[in-house]
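Page 37, continued from 36.
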């Protein structure tokens, strides 16, 4: 029996899952190692501790090899947009996290050189303050690109540290706002227009590409953007709407080619790379709202209890879950208070407000998808941690009028493993 290892890292935690093919053709998984992740503040900026991340990745592999000494391949997926700058084999530190505010000055400068409608028309990537294009331009203006030989997206950096091969994986590269929607390659006119070093933008590799080895294990590029792997891991019947529900809620559909129309731009939908299709989707704030409220109002309280109390509460005001005020507030409670006519009388009211607001934001995104694509959808498949939330699932079904199919599975790891299994048979 062949075993494969998926290293799936999110903004708050990471996990190593062993995978193998059962006799009936289904993919079986076993979690072998889990570790914490999160941003750290350094000199007033939000950063990633990449040394700790790499240490956990290696330790998890070591733990896997103790019980499974013969692993055919491994791959790493993470969140998108963030990267590590390199000077040869040396990292340029700090490694900034996407929620940091350093792009605030860069955004208007980028748009002065290339207006956003032109950027969207060329790339189809929605406006997000943290897109790689703005981060790299902030690096340029800060002088951080001088002498830099490479920039590696986070999962490609971790695999480089394992196997010694530098790469640019397609699905992850598309999240940054510099891949031409038509050609599927880095857009040289955007790069030249912003004065970014052309040598940083190498050839893209597709999911399934084999890299080097680590401790005798073949390193393979999965769809290294975690949402791309998650979409691969969803067992959908036909092409329906999906929500990958985690720190972010990624709501979208599979389409054959990008939609870069002004109407699509106005709805702020993004066209990210998939495995032989385009992921047409929208980023919605997601469980970030819930997690931050919990940390502030009732640290350590069981999520089941939080959900039950929210369901029984009667606070009925809502907010725009995608309002930028919720991106990285010092106090999530204060952010809600600022957007409500009056604050809830108890903690449960805040959570009820967050859940109802998410469901209504999902409904708005569904309406926009159907309008722009000209197609009606019947179902919504929800995967990830949020799929376990029956209250939110019920609210989503009520708000959208769609059948909600909740699959509390490790869809990202399943997609990661599926690509490995195809590459290393």
């Amino acid at each position: 029996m062949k075993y494969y290892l998926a290293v799936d890292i999110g903004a708050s935690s990471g996990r190593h899952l062993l995978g193998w093919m059962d006799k009936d053709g289904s993919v079986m998984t076993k979690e072998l190692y889990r570790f914490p992740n999160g941003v750290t503040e350094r000199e007033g900026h939000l950063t990633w501790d990449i040394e700790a991340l790499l240490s956990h990745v290696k330790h998890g592999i070591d733990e896997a090899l103790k019980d499974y000494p013969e692993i055919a391949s491994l791959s790493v997926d993470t969140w998108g947009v963030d990267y590590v700058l390199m000077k040869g084999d040396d990292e340029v530190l700090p490694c900034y996290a996407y929620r940091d505010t350093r792009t605030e000055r860069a955004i208007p400068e980028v748009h002065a050189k290339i207006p956003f409608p032109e950027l969207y028309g060329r790339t189809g990537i929605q406006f997000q303050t943290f897109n790689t294009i703005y981060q790299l331009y902030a690096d340029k203006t800060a002088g951080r690109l001088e002498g830099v030989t490479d920039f590696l997206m986070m999962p490609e950096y971790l695999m480089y540290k394992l196997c010694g091969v530098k790469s640019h994986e397609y699905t992850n590269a598309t999240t940054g706002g510099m891949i031409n929607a038509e050609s599927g390659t880095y857009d040289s006119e955007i790069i030249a227009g912003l004065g970014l070093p052309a040598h940083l933008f190498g050839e893209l590799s597709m999911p399934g590409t084999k890299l080097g080895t680590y401790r005798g294990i073949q390193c393979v590029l999965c769809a290294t953007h975690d949402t791309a792997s998650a979409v691969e891991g969803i067992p959908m019947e036909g092409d329906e709407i999906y929500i990958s529900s985690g720190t972010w809620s990624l709501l979208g559909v599979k389409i054959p080619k990008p939609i870069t129309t002004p109407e699509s731009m106005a709805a702020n939908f993004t066209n990210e790379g998939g495995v032989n299709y385009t992921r047409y989707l929208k980023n919605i704030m997601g469980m970030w709202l819930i997690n931050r409220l919990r940390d502030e109002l009732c640290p350590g309280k069981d999520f089941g209890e939080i959900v039950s109390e929210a369901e029984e509460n009667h606070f009925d005001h809502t907010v725009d879950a995608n309002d930028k005020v919720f991106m990285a507030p010092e106090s999530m409670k204060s952010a809600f208070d600022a957007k409500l006519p009056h604050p809830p009388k108890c903690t449960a009211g805040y959570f009820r407000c967050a859940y109802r607001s998410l469901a209504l934001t999902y409904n708005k995104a569904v309406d926009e998808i159907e309008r722009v694509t000209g197609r009606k959808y019947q179902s919504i498949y929800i995967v990830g941690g949020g799929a376990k939330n029956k209250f939110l699932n019920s609210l989503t079904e009520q708000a959208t009028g769609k059948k909600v199919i909740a699959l509390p599975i490790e869809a990202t790891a399943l997609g990661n493993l599926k690509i490995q299994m195809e590459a290393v048979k």
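Residues 235-413 form a domain with the Nucleotidyltransferase; domain 5 fold (CATH 3.30.420.40). Flag for discussion at group meeting. The chain has 15 helices and 18 strands.
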